Amino acid sequence: MSASLLSLQGVHTHIGAYHILHGVDLEVPRGQLTMLLGRNGAGKTTTLRTIMGLWQASQGQVLFDGQPLAKLGTPEIAQQGIAYVPENMGIFADLTVKENMLLAARSARNATQMDEARLQWIFKLFPAVEKFWNHPAGKLSGGQKQMVAVSRAIVEPRDLLIVDEPSKGLAPAIINNMIDAFDQLKKSGVTILLVEQNINFAKRLGDTVAVMDNGQVVHAGSMAALAADEELQRSLLGLAL
Known about the structure:
Strands 6-7-8-3-9-10 form a 6-stranded mixed β-sheet, with helices on both faces. Strands 2-1-4-5 form a 4-stranded antiparallel β-sheet, with helices on one face. The chain contains 10 helices and 10 strands. The relative contact order is 0.18. The model has no long low-confidence stretch (mean pLDDT 92). It is of the alpha/beta class. α3 (97-104) packs parallel to α6 (142-153).
């Protein structure tokens, strides 16, 4: 069994005439939380979308648990045990929170067939999901929508959770709640890959880190080591953490 649950090897991605990823090498260790950092436009979101098959790699390999994903469609990739929360959260605004959750609970045809024990676990992670269970998701605040988006991704057991900027636009109190939730998810055995701009979020949660620039991973190592090295932070990110 490989130490890395997810591995990208020399991945290139073109979007139309634009060459966005230039040979990305990325290892996401099993059972850990990996932060993917970098300046705006470095290729972070493109990397996530390439993993999920939303954009096709033009070269290189994406391996999940040692098996290639590159030729699979997005629904097939999700069925491997991978959940993805995009930056825009992908909430169905006209549906209730319950209906949003039910759409992701593929083993259930109605709410009564959803795993009650798992729902109670999610409600403890995100009390707002239970509070607004029968409310239209589009009426929720940004932070509440983000909680619904993450809850929907984990309504069934997943081996890998991929989330794009979960703290973006959130109030500090909600960010702290989100940090606690991801910490509990990690402790439950879920492998997590996060793109994040909030440096405090990254320092508190990350086990390992990869930093991207110009469509490549230019640094990989432990999050603690990067957090302790201000000179390296400035050279990679243009600021100190």
